# Entry
Amino acid sequence: MLDIGLPPTLTAEIDGEIALLRLSRPHKRNALDLATIQGLHRFFAHLPSGVRAVVLSGEGEHFCAGLDLEDVVEPDDILEVIHHSQTWHQAFHEIQFGRVPVVAALHGAVVGGGFELAAATHIRVAEPSTYYALPEGQRGIFLGGGGSVRIPRLIGVPLVQDLMLTGRTLSAEEGRVHGASQYLVGAGEGLAHATKLARKIARNAEMTNFAVLHALPRIAASDPAAGFFTESLMAAIAAGTPEAQQRLRDFLEKRAGKVKPGL
Ligand code: 1HE
# Structure
């Protein structure tokens, strides 16, 4: 258990190098109210130093039904809605650009803000029950949790426009094909698979994981000349760590595992 004052809508547990965080508001389909968003922020900002990867899942029949719609009924003014959205941005930024990789285990509805939350994680594992939707159009609102920045980078602007304009859902299989998830596993296998991936990730060199989270997306979004240069700097920083030197020697002296097909 973590003593960082999480709201009752979040359950956290530490298992060695892995932290398991669960959205725990199943009676509201894990809809995200402000306290939960602030709790997510607090959790990722205060991860114990021994934690090397996080698994995020949802309790009950669905991963997450998105924004708690009660939070946007009768806002006092437009600025209040802007600040609300920025609170989401800060929390999800802490996930995407935090200290450790985050693996999401998806099932059932991954809807609206739930899709935005999933998009802020680094690896998404979906079960066949998963479906993605962006029903903001039906509700008369817009994305506000960074989804218009992150989700098109996963599945492309035309598909986001299709989902938002028509209100249709994307199946688990379609989501896998279009990049909403990297993995599609069997029913009931999502959490175990996500945890297995997280344990594998936790064994990587810390500097490489840092580079994958912080350097890679920025290099990919920059102009190629700046990207090549930043890549060289990052490569030098990573290779210069004692951990890299040890791992390279381990391989050359036949103590390290080889690359094999599969996980
Ligand atoms: C909610 C919410 C919610 C459920 N806010 N209360 N998100 C949506 O538009 C999705 C709205 N939810 C749904 O379409 C359905 O609930 C589900 C398909 C996800 C699940 O259906 P089901 O039949 O399993 O559950 P339910 O009976 O609809 O919901 C159970 C309860 O949760 C019910 O309340 P109750 O008092 O009648 O028990 C629902 O009202 C409540 N509930 N979802 C509030 N989202 C930063 S901007 C992000 C913008 C968005 O996220 S827009 C998308 C919002």
